[in-house]
Design brief:
The complex is a heterodimer of chains A (210) and B (736).
Chain A: H1 3-29, E1 33-38, H2 42-50, E2 56-59, H3 65-71, E3 76-80, E4 83-85, E5 96-97, H4 98-102, E6 107-116, E7 121-124, H5 131-134, E8 140-146, E9 150-151, H6 154-165, E10 170-175, E11 180-181, E12 189-190, E13 197-204
Parallel strand pairs in A: 1-13, 2-3, 2-6, 6-8, 6-9, 8-13
Antiparallel strand pairs in A: 3-4, 4-5, 6-7, 7-10, 11-12
Helix pairs in contact in A: 2-3
Chain B: H1 9-18, H2 20-38, H3 44-63, H4 65-78, E1 82-86, H5 89-102, E2 107-110, H6 114-118, H7 121-127, E3 131-134, H8 137-145, H9 161-172, H10 181-198, E4 201-204, E5 208-210, E6 215-220, H11 224-230, E7 234-240, E8 244-245, H12 251-263, E9 270-275, E10 306-312, H13 316-320, H14 336-340, H15 342-351, H16 359-370, H17 372-376, H18 387-391, H19 398-413, H20 417-423, H21 425-432, H22 436-442, H23 446-455, H24 471-477, E11 494-498, H25 502-506, H26 509-521, E12 524-528, H27 536-539, H28 545-563, E13 567-570, H29 573-587, H30 596-604, E14 605-607, H31 608-617, E15 630-635, H32 638-642, H33 648-653, E16 659-664, H34 682-697, E17 702-705, H35 708-718, E18 722-723, H36 725-732
Parallel strand pairs in B: 1-10, 2-3, 2-4, 4-7, 5-8, 7-10, 11-12, 11-13, 13-14, 15-16, 15-17, 17-18
Antiparallel strand pairs in B: 5-6, 6-9
Helix pairs in contact in B: 1-15, 2-12, 2-15, 3-12, 15-34, 16-19, 24-26, 26-36, 28-29, 28-30, 29-30, 34-35
Classes of the chains: A alpha/beta (210), B alpha/beta (736).
Chain lengths: 210, 736
């Protein structure tokens, strides 16, 4: 590798690192937490975050995560459309209707399609499944975000997600922190109709910067 | 009640001023929102850049509205939405009501939508036997209270926590309600959760529509919009006719601007872009199937979801075709204008507002959607101070919109005598100055007070004193000046013509003299303009014909001076604001629209403090000043702030060696021209001034203010002497 090329690569990774840092700082200002993990440690980290939450619903866009969580003794099911598979339920692992578990599920795990460093936002969607509900109804929302999807500004994110916006039935949601309100005397309260807690896992090749 | 009125605004104001719980709640919250917003921007330049961009998008969007709506409808329909156009409130409520009946809807969950408030959607649905539950916490609170929103973003902000505790305890039948905001929020979460799951229909508004993709955009914090738009099998979005922007990429600037302007957040917790009918299947319970039919069995038989988009016109397309009102439609409903508005801060959106649109922007919106009569009653609560325009992320000239509505009201019902009197500061000066000692005495006698009362002027207010020796009298008698510098030496540091305003000339000639003295000491060649009244006193009464004439006269006079190398110096910031901000609008419907001298004047008219500070910044201000040992408390004029020169008076004073300068931050002095003199607004004016008075009284020092009405208000409210910054500088000049 030429010295020049090595330099350039180094710059690229420096700016990627800076982007990740900016994203994390902004998300933390939004009352969300950010953890950097390598690919192989995602299941273990999710398990740590959702431990004690009870039933965990995983979006189908994260293949194998539900099974990996079950292997770690977490009661996790995979959501596809309006159905959940893999939950023990009454002893079986037959699919059950999403409506049967939504009200009691403790956590929803979704996959981000893009993120914004400047505002500390992850974008989930495009809504073919029920990830919108997974990120809204359970009290705890966990988002898995590949580091390469972090864009500097909102405008960059819109450009990147444009192909996903127009499809019929598509729903993309910028999530910037847990649900919140200031409706009573402008006192900020976290946890209204959506989650009380938001955790973002930034998946990096190396395990990341922190 | 006077012609054209349906509300007794004076008594509503008195009621609001007596409601200390409400006042405290609003005043504190607005202060906090302003502080959050102030921290939200990386820089002033960035904010300006963004709002220029946002305004350009809105201008294009309204210019191409029908074309964009057609494109939006086509894209949304392709994506499985049913798009309908509703001409008015009746058509919109009928469509949604019929849909609810056809689908057997019993329970509707609704998210916060001003547009739905505008058409009284809840009432219409309830009349059809449907239960409507508001999902947004603030909206739920006011729904339980049986009220309408008082703010665009925080609808229940007029209620104190204690009032909310009592309300929820009573309506929800709770003996020991939680005592803090967090507990109350959890209580409502629990209460509403099952209703989100049980609702047969979800109704939302939309912050934006995107023509290019057929998407609607919903911006929120609580998560209720996410639930409302995707849990129930039927989703109805009520979208204002003006909301469609051309391209997906255009959304970026609004996502940067709206949350920051509203709550100081970089982005709200949730921003949803929804394109067409949801693909995710209806939850089986909602499809009316018991889950015991067996896992997976029902999947193929589930009914499809429905997504209806109702585009509401209700006066909007007509307003878009009205060049004077169109910019009201640029509003993105962030509420920053309300937070910045002094009268709103004191009386809130129920008094200062229509049904349902609050505040200064609420007046044109009420005019557009409800008609003239409902709008006019609260129109005069806009003092035209322009602090809202300064805060607006699309730079809507809200004071101008209110001026236009006032003018239309005057045309329809005739202007009152009081309006005609206040409009003519120039004539009052011409009449009273020559007989000043007598006039000043007469203005304080009982018969004068009786006639004030008859006119609707608060008799407790003291009119400014008139001076027999006017500024112009002094100027004309002044010995002819020898050139500022003997020939051969360096040229004058600048050439200015002082705009002789009615108040400086007749009431405060000493200020004018100090201004001339300071400018000449700085080596500036000074002359005076032979101008007409700037027109502002008349503008603020909604009497625009005379100001149109004067504006043309002034363009000729001042334009001629500028051509001869003079800059124009204003002493009264409100006059400067007329020259720099209002002439363009005032003349846009006349043959003088586009007169290049309008731009020339905007570029060459300065506030005197701004001019001197600019000279200092360029290293051209050389004044021989004796050190002082004094403290100055500077009150910034609203029009200086809205012109972006709010700190100039303090900066000028800081040039005086030894001066200690405090800028006293307050919303507004409350007088704002004739506003505080009017009988129905006098108490409100003094209540607005209260914040400033308290802050001034807490400090020793000489009070400094630039505007005549600020001066009168502070003198009457605190008994302190007030001077213009140039009087301070003139006093420190070491004269040869």
């Amino acid at each position: 590798m030429s010295a020049e090329r090595a330099d350039r690569q180094c710059q690229v990774s420096d700016s990627a690192r800076e982007l990740q840092e900016r994203f994390a700082a902004a998300m933390e200002m939004n009352s969300g937490t950010v953890t950097f993990v390598p690919e192989h440690a995602v299941a273990a980290e999710v398990a740590r975050l959702v431990c004690g939450d009870g039933v965990v619903l995983v979006d189908e866009a994260l293949p194998d995560l539900a099974a990996a969580l079950r292997a770690l003794d977490i009661e996790a099911g995979e959501v596809s459309g309006a159905e959940v598979t893999g939950l023990r339920g009454a002893g079986s692992r037959q699919p059950v209707g999403l409506e049967e578990v939504l009200a009691t599920a403790g956590a929803g795990v979704t996959a981000a399609v893009v993120a914004v460093a400047a505002t500390g936002s992850v974008v989930i969607g495009p809504g073919k499944g029920s990830e919108g509900l997974l990120g809204t109804l359970p009290p705890h929302h966990v988002v898995v975000l590949p580091a390469s999807l972090i864009e500097p500004e909102i405008s960059d994110a819109l450009t990147r997600m444009a192909p996903l916006v127009a499809g019929p039935g598509n729903r993309l949601v910028f999530v910037s922190g847990p649900s919140r309100t200031s409706d009573i005397e402008l006192t900020t309260v976290v946890g209204v109709h959506g989650p009380l807690r938001l955790d973002v896992l930034v998946v990096t090749e190396s395990g990341g910067v922190r | 009640m006077a012609k054209g009125h349906v509300r007794d605004i004076g008594s509503e104001i008195r009621g609001a001023l007596a409601d200390t719980a409400m006042q405290g709640a609003i005043f504190r919250a607005m202060g906090s929102l302003r502080a959050r917003r102030a921290l939200a921007w990386p820089s002033v330049e960035r904010f300006e850049e963004l709002r220029r961009e946002a305004r350009a998008v809105k201008e294009e969007a309204l210019e191409r509205a029908e074309e964009l709506l057609a494109e939006f409808s086509a894209r949304a329909t392709e994506a499985g939405a049913v798009v309908v156009r509703a001409r008015d409130a009746k058509a919109a409520t009928a469509y949604i009501g019929d849909l609810a009946r056809d689908r057997g809807v019993r329970l509707v969950i609704k998210s916060k939508s001003m547009t739905s408030e505008e058409i009284h959607l809840n009432k219409a649905l309830e009349a059809g036997g449907v239960t409507v539950v508001e999902g947004d916490l603030g909206e739920r609170i006011i729904q339980l209270a049986g009220e309408r929103p008082s703010h665009l973003v925080v609808p229940a902000i007029h209620k104190s926590k204690e009032q909310i505790i009592r309300l929820l305890a009573e309506k929800m039948g709770i003996a020991e309600p939680p005592a803090d905001a967090e507990g109350l929020t959890r209580l409502v979460r629990q209460d509403l959760r099952q209703r989100f799951l049980d609702a047969d229909m979800g109704i939302t508004g939309a912050n934006f529509g995107i023509a290019e993709t057929g998407s609607i955009v919903l911006i929120e914090n609580e998560g209720n919009v996410c639930l409302t738009s995707q849990v129930p099998p039927v989703h109805v979005a009520l979208v204002g006719w003006e909301k469609v922007i051309p391209r997906l990429a255009d959304l970026a600037v609004f996502l940067e601007l709206l949350p920051r302007s509203a709550t100081g957040q970089r982005l709200t917790s949730y921003v949803s872009l929804i394109t067409g009918r949801q693909a995710a299947p209806v939850l089986r319970k909602q499809a009316g199937r018991p889950s015991s039919t067996g896992p997976g069995a029902a999947a193929s038989a589930q009914p499809a979801r429905e997504f209806h988009i109702v585009i509401l016109d209700n006066g909007r397309s007509q307003a878009a075709a009205d060049s004077e009102l169109r910019e009201a439609l640029y509003c993105i409903r962030c509420g920053a204008c309300l937070n910045a508005c002094a009268p709103y801060n004191l009386v809130g959106g129920h008094v200062y507002g229509g049904d349902p649109y609050p505040g200064g922007i609420g007046c044109p919106w009420t005019y557009v959607t409800k008609g003239h009569t409902e709008a006019y009653d609260f129109n005069s609560l806009c003092t035209t101070c322009s602090r809202c325009t300064e805060a607006c992320p699309v730079k809507i000239d809200i004071p101008w919109l209110n001026t236009v509505i006032k003018e239309r009201n005057n045309r329809e019902f005739g202007a009152g005598l009081r309006q005609r009197v206040f409009a003519r500061a120039d004539l009052m000066g011409d009449a009273f100055s020559p007989i000043a000692p007598l006039a000043n005495l007469a203005l304080r006698t009982a018969p004068a007070h009786w006639s004030f009362e008859a006119l609707g002027i608060d008799p407790a207010r003291r009119m400014p004193k008139y001076e027999q020796k006017t500024f112009m009298g002094w100027w004309n008698k002044r010995p002819a000046r020898s050139p500022a510098r003997p020939a051969g030496e360096e040229a004058a540091a600048g050439k200015v013509a002082v705009f002789v305003d009615c108040f400086m000339n007749h009431n405060l000639p000493e200020v004018g003299k100090a201004v001339v003295q300071v400018l000449e000491a700085a080596g500036v060649e000074v002359t005076v303009a032979h101008n007409s009244c700037c027109g502002r006193p008349s503008l603020s009464q909604g009497l625009l014909e005379a100001p149109r004439r004067w504006a043309v006269d002034n363009l000729r006079e001042l334009g001629g001076l500028i051509d001869r190398g003079y800059d124009i110096i204003c002493v009264e910031p409100s006059c400067l604001s007329a020259l720099r901000d209002d002439y363009r609008r005032l003349l846009e419907t006349t043959a003088h629209a586009g007169d290049p001298r309008i731009q020339l004047l905007e570029d060459h008219a300065y506030d005197v403090t701004e001019y001197l500070v600019l000279m200092a910044q360029q290293g051209r201000l050389h004044l021989d000043l004796a050190p002082v040992e004094a403290t100055y408390l500077v009150h910034g004029h609203c029009h200086q702030k809205s012109l972006g020169i709010g700190s100039a008076p303090a900066e000028l004073l800081r040039l005086v060696p030894g001066a200690t300068v405090h800028e006293v931050e307050a919303l507004c002095c409350g007088m704002v021209g004739s506003f505080g003199y009017k009988e129905e607004y006098s108490a409100l004016s003094q209540a607005i001034g209260g914040e400033l008075f308290d802050k001034l009284q807490a400090h020793e020092g000489l009070v400094v203010a630039c505007g005549i009405s600020c001066r009168s208000q502070i003198e009457q409210g605190t008994g302190r002497t007030v001077v213009h910054p140039c009087e301070v500088v003139a006093g420190a000049l070491r004269l040869p």
